[in-house]
Amino acid sequence: MSGDQQRAAERSVQQTLGHLRAIDGGPGEDPDRPLTLEDVYRQQRMRMVRLAILLVDEPATAEDVVQEAFTGLYRNWSGLRDSRAAIGYLRTAVVNGSRSVLRRRKTARDYQPPHQTDARSAESLAMLSAEHRAVVDALSGLPRRQREVLVLRYYGDLSEVEIAEATGVSRGTVKSTASRALDALQKAMGTG
Length: 192
Fold this sequence. Notes:
The chain is 72% helix and 0% strand.
């Protein structure tokens, strides 16, 4: 894939997931005030659910993953270095929970032909143009790690270092995975 094609794929992913991030809104809290668990839940719950939906493709499963992440956060709240670390904790818990769901799903489907599910909410799909839907559908077909890296980068708006921390891989792996993911996405969308 040429550099221009890869940049075009990157722009498509960035626009689509940036659009979803804008719909969800960013945290509007005072950065100097310590967060309570209730604040974190109110500000981050839907954003974490949307992140999980992008990773597992099923709203109900995504809700379960996020609920488990918040349960873990509640159990470990007193052990956090500061309340701002809660968001990183949640993000990592959602990624790891999504991985577990996908592993269980793969095991359950080993002897069955795979099928495509499009269980995203009607609300989220209605807000996306046809081009954006094509990008989200192409993301669904990527291998787990590639999807995670692109979703965390363009929806989560995380740096390579933050993605590496959330996924448990090196920064170099994040960079190379993102490049391969953009190549694969371009091919899946038929523009490569």
